């Protein structure tokens, strides 16, 4: 078990745990930075932003993933499947694709994400694959933010 003290350590280690999964699907991944960040809509769980300064396949291309700070630490397998969904976007951005269409589902479904591609959830098989990763990472070191709290608008 790694010695994880900070949220970003946990999130970055989760990304590294998934890199071999993408390699098995022959899906290239760029560099990925991941953190928590307030989302544009209250029902948005995470967003992946492509690197608009670089061309697809550029060695310096970096995708940025931001996960809602409302995430509940005890639901680490759900957090992992959210990160996996956003990593599919990162892989698609890296080859010049975007959205939730065929290129997205061509990676997401074999990884075990199911449901509407705009709001995927882990299949039962994927949940089983995520459990040992969640155990390895330990509890997500985070106190959830109440998005209805002060300072965030209505």
Describe this structure in words.
The chain is α+β, with helices and mostly antiparallel strands. Helices cover 40% and strands 13% of the residues. It is built from 4 helices and 5 strands. A 3-stranded mixed β-sheet has the order 1-3-2. The protein has a two-stranded antiparallel sheet with strand order 4-5. A hairpin with a 6-residue loop joins strand 4 and strand 5. It is globular, with a radius of gyration of 15 Å. The model has no long low-confidence stretch (mean pLDDT 92).
Task: Summarize the main sheet.
Answer: 3 strands, mixed
**Spatial strand arrangement across the major sheet:** 1-3-2
Percent strand: 5-15%
- Specify the structural class: alpha+beta
First-last Cα distance = 40 Å
Figure out the total of helices: 4
Give the helices and strands as they follow along the chain.
Answer: HEEEHHEEH
By oligomeric state, this entry counts as: single chain
């Amino acid at each position: 078990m790694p010695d994880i003290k900070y949220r970003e350590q946990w999130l970055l280690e989760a990304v590294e745990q998934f890199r071999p999964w993408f390699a098995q699907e022959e899906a290239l991944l760029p560099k990925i930075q991941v953190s928590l960040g307030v989302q544009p809509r209250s029902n948005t769980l995470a967003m992946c932003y492509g690197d608009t300064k670089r061309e697809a396949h550029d060695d310096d291309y970096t995708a940025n993933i931001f996960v809602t700070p409302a995430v509940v630490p005890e639901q680490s397998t759900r957090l992992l499947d959210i990160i996996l969904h956003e990593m599919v976007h990162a892989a698609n951005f890296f080859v010049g694709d975007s959205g939730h269409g065929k290129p997205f589902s061509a990676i997401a479904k074999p990884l075990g994400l199911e449901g509407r591609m705009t709001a995927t959830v882990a299949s039962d098989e994927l949940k089983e694959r995520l459990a040992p990763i969640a155990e390895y990472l330990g509890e997500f070191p985070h106190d959830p933010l109440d998005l209805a709290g002060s300072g965030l608008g209505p």
